[in-house]
Amino acid sequence: FFNKLVKKNFRIYLIQYVKIGFFLIIFFYLFILLSLIYSQSNYYKYEKLVSFSLSCLLYFFPLVYSGFNLNKFLDSFLKISILIISLYHLVNFLDYDRNYNTTYLKTAYLSGLNLLLYIFIYNKKNMLISFYFLFSLLITGSRGALVSFILISFIGFKKIYINFIINIFIKLKLIFFLLILFLVVFLYYDEIFLLFQRTIARSLILYEFDLNSPNFKTRFMHINIVFENLKDFIFFGVGFGGYGISFLDDDSRRYPHNIFLEILIELGIIGIIFYLLFVIYNFYILFKYKPNICYILLYLLIAAQFSGTFAEMRLFYGFLAIGLLASQRIKKYDKLAK
Question: Is 162 exposed, middle or buried (0-12, 13-18, 19+ CB in 10 A)?
Answer without folding.
Answer: exposed
